[in-house]
Amino acid sequence: MYFTWLDSNSWLLEISGKNILIDPWLVGALTFGNLNWLFKGERRNPRPIPQKIDLILLSQGLEDHAHPETLKQLNKNIPVVGSPNAAKVAQGLGYTQVRALEQGTTYCLENQIEIKALPGSPIGPTTIENAYLLKDLTTGNTVYYEPHGYHAPELKEMAAIDVVITPLINISLPLVGPIIRGQQTALDLAKLVHPQVMLPTAEAGDVVYEGLLVSLLKVSGNLEDFRSMLARENLSTRVLNPQPGERFEVSLQQRPVSVV
Question: Where are the transmembrane segments (predicted)?
Fold first, then answer.
């Protein structure tokens, strides 16, 4: 199983011989509603578009997960699976194979990878976007992805999970509170699903952010803090520190099979 972190929440996951592009932002600037004065992210170096993409997986419909400029650049015949809000974005951009995945339902990619949608991040007072559990049907290995640190209690029924991609730091705004939940929330998740490996997401990488909103953000915690938290709980989970744009392999141990 191979991973490439492409900054922010963007990942390329190579699993069961398939390449899955997750929440891609590869070209252009990142803004919300074209309000550059409020928030703008720009890459020091643009990320090349992967040559082989078997599926685009979108967790949310917001620009930092369903980035319009990037989606305009990609082949519109690539299958897209996303939350209902993200599916609307892809459909509006002309994608021909779009599946809106409701929470609790699954999508199977060529009988090799099962993708289950779970409750993820709340967006506004009434909308909850998607988290995903991906399962390699040939090996049984699993990967869980949630980009803001909101984890559904039903994950306990799906433990153990091999690889978890989630924030490991906290980012908050005055008066609003946490917008990215890591540290304690990630520790609770580790105790719940006992992952072999955890990978941090939602960090800047090679991106430069500016704007009024950025000046108000408060960041707390780091990977070493989180490793210490795991050690105090006697958890053997490995925390990796991926470098932007560098492909790396995650080796997993075969879990013991329970005999009834």
Answer: 20-39
